[in-house]
Amino acid sequence: MLPARTIRRALPGQLSRDWPSPTNPQAALCTLGEPIQIAVYLTCYLSDSLSLQGGLAMLRAFRSMMLMSRWTVAAALALTCSQIAFADPPTIGSTNVAVADPLIPAPYTTPCTVTLYANLEFANFDSKPFDYAPPANCPGPWQKVVLSADYSVTMGRQFDRTAEIWLGGAIVYFGTTQEPSSAVAPSWHIERDLTDYSALFAGAHSGHATLGNFVGTSGGVNYTGVIHGTAKLLFYPEAPTVPDHPPRPDIVLPLSGSADGSTADLAS
User: Fold this and answer.
1) CATH assignment at residue 165
2) Same domain, 39 and 132
3) Which of 50, 145, 212, 267 is the most exposed place for a label (fewest CB within 10 A)?
4) Does one domain contain both 151 and 59?
5) Structure confidence by residue, pLDDT tens digits, 2-14
6) 163: domain range?
7) Beta bridge pairs of residue 130
8) Alpha helices of the chain — where are they, by DSSP H?
9) pTM
10) pLDDT of residue 98
11) Backbone angles phi and psi of 47, in degrees to 5
């Protein structure tokens, strides 16, 4: 393992100028444009900076990129390192939820946050309305838009429940909740890449969260688990140095059972 100063001597020029932080090797990797720099960087930093799975994926990508032109290498490399992000590994012996989904890889730009709802309680079957307005400080187009949500359920008895988030008649999240126990109050984090919904987020809309949850006694069984949730949209401004600016859909056409958004029944 070579120290950072050795890397700087081995790779004069762009790496030493653009190095963002020794603790953020992915960002540094994205600044490189020469295949030989990529190879040396991966050799020196792979063991400490990336998981084995992620590192092998990057090496395979590098082998393919060696056949490309210089500019194609730079573009493909930026896209490759933007795809790598890993959730925290589960704690051994923990009774909480183990999140298997990788985190959405975030651009290096600072996002603007729009909160859809915060610490909302779900203890009945009523829809929970909210209002949305585009972020004033981050006008589009955006490099990426990410839904970030956190849910929890109190200890006790409860079934897993279906969770939905609707905005402007379009569904932006559909999933299920974790079941608690008498000794475990699960909590979990959710991320979804909603960049293709950018046209929807350009205007103000009403929305609602649906998470039907029964709290009470039914059939002699007492259901006590109350669910809470917080949902935000993270808007990342475009990153000028990242060549990944694919076109976004011009319009989002919701297919739902009502104008404000609901599941539809398909009858045959």
Assistant:
1) 2.60.120.230
2) no
3) 267
4) no
5) 333 333 333 333 3
6) 112-237
7) 207
8) 4-10, 14-18, 25-30, 35-49, 52-65, 70-82, 198-201
9) 0.66
10) 76
11) -65, -30
